[in-house]
Amino acid sequence: MITIETYNVWKVRAAFAMAGIFGTMNALWLAPEPLRHRIVDLVDYVLEAIPVEAPEQPQEAFSVPIGMVTPEVDANAAGGVAAPPETEAVDDQPSDGLLPPLDIDANDDPFMELQGVGTGSGGTDLARLEALPMLFTADEIAAIIDVECSGDFTLIGDNGKAYGPCQIWNDYLQDVNQRFGTGIKQSELLGNRPLSVAVMNAYMHRYAPSNSFEDRARIHNKGPSAATPGSKQFSKATVYWKKIQKAKQTIVAAK
After folding, report:
1. Which end of the chain is more exposed for a tag (fewer CB within 10 A), N or C?
2. Average model confidence (pLDDT) for the chain?
3. DSSP 125-163
């Protein structure tokens, strides 16, 4: 509480201060110009040397919105600091320490195309045909491929009509496409042993599902009628069948 005495003292001090200020200003005004500049420079120097502290910002009161859950305070923590909420650890690595397998589309991999999981219809069509039971043994397949292309899987024979390891004609291939709903192109057979074998096996599922290997070899060479003794195609396929027999014997003997 301010008393009358205190108020009067402040009035006197204020009067002297104002008088001093006006007196100083009057003295500066009457002083020579070089001296005025020196005094002003001295005042600026003193003012710059006085540290100025920024006033403290008042802290705003924190209010918790309705419905907000505040973190629990650990009573044992220094200063009563709120403990951070617990979160579940996320394991980015699989349990075996290996990176997760890449999700690779076979249609984007040219190596898969070479192995018979080709682009376009090749991959889906191969899977569809490979779902059929295999009617040939490994030795029988090897014998046919040996006679047909002698190991040159990119061979185009019979004056440009036969393609790939099994030397399949386009009519032969289209028969399989129509029967099994596939869309394989003849060019896809080049260099593609799995697809060529799958097409040959599918063809036999239509025309020789219960026949002997001899019948299937003859049909592969000259068509469905080549399995019928006495037919024209049967006679034409006899030379071919003998070559297949010899190739198979050589393969078996080499084991």
Report:
1. N
2. 75
3. HHHHHHTSPP-S-HHHHHHHHHHHHTT-TT-EETTTTEE
Q: What is the pLDDT of residues 12-60, one digit of tens each?
A: 566 555 556 555 555 555 656 666 666 667 666 655 666 655 556 555 5
Closest by Cα among 108, 109, 92 to 100: 92
b/e code 111-126 from CB counts within 10 Å (16+ = b): ebbeebbbeeebbbbb
- Sign, Cα dihedral of 142, 147, 152, 154: negative
Rounded Cα gap, residues 81 and 99, in angstroms: 40
Nearest 5 degrees, angle CA 163-CA 167-CA 169?
70
> Which residue's structure tokens are 């009057």?
26
Alpha helices by DSSP H, the chain = 4-30, 33-49, 110-114, 122-130, 138-149, 170-180, 193-207, 213-222, 232-236, 238-253
Distance CA 37, CA 28 (A): 9
pLDDT in tens, 206-252: 999 999 999 999 999 999 999 999 999 999 999 999 999 999 999 99
Task: Give the whole-angstrom CA distance, residue 171 versus residue 34.
Answer: 115
